[in-house]
Design a protein that fits this description.
alpha+beta; 34% helix; N-acetylglucosamine-induced protein 1; DUF3605
Length: 226
């Protein structure tokens, strides 16, 4: 079993009360999110209730600190190493939310409407998924294009929510619908959510979380190419 690192004395992000509770737990005490629990959390927009397994949270804290020390921001790492996108980057230390604003460079998306151009988004597996029961996979759709929100907290507008729903249906639900024998009700195998600002670990780069249930590896690879 991989060694679990100590929690950094000064974590790379502010820990919530739930984080502190998790860090005081063992993995054996942790209750995993099942599909019904995830549906309930997303339906009531209680996204702060999503949690990682205690040992994974410790590893995530250590990884975040190391990655920020090496790349300046998590966004820089995501763009350079995971997305291979050449966005205006500030590799010095600083908040992710300031990176693009300080650059003074033009936007790098091809179409200002989110999801309109495939080159403006990329689907990847989540490197640090929440603690979920077996059979649930966590993907992230990363976008070059900002998604309009209606408040500083980052809550979606009705139009943005409809736009994401359409993309999720066309990309994920419709793909599962091609296999009616295994997915007679494909919509029941897909959930999505978008964290509001206070919960985002990469604030300057738009992203939407996708959860899928009982989807085989070959289809996951189709979506994420990894």
């Amino acid at each position: 079993m991989p060694e679990v690192p100590e929690v950094p004395q000064v974590p790379a992000f502010n820990l919530t009360e739930l984080d502190h509770q998790l860090l005081a737990m063992t993995d054996e005490e942790f209750v995993y999110h099942d599909w019904e629990d995830l549906k309930s959390i997303i339906a009531r927009n209680d996204l702060g209730a999503l949690k990682r397994k205690p040992s994974d949270l410790r590893r995530y804290l250590a990884w975040t600190q190391e990655t920020k020390a090496k790349y300046g921001t998590i966004m820089n790492y995501i763009c350079q190493q995971r997305l291979k996108w050449h966005l205006p980057l500030n590799t010095a230390s600083g908040s992710d939310s300031a990176v693009i604003k300080q650059s003074g460079l033009p936007a790098t998306f091809k179409n200002p409407r989110p999801f309109a151009d495939p080159e403006d988004y990329k689907i990847l597996r989540n490197d640090w998924p929440y603690g979920v029961t077996p059979g649930i996979s966590h993907l992230v759709v990363w976008l070059r294009t900002p998604i309009p929100v209606k408040s500083d907290e980052g809550h979606l507008t009705d139009e943005s929510r409809a736009m994401i729903n359409t993309f999720v249906r066309k990309t994920f639900v419709d793909r599962l619908a091609k296999d009616p024998q295994n997915f007679p009700d494909p919509e029941s195998h897909v959930l999505w959510f978008k964290n509001w600002v206070g919960l985002q670990s990469v604030r300057a780069l738009e992203h939407v979380h996708i959860l899928v249930r009982d989807v085989p590896e070959d289809i996951l690879f189709e979506w994420a190419n990894e």
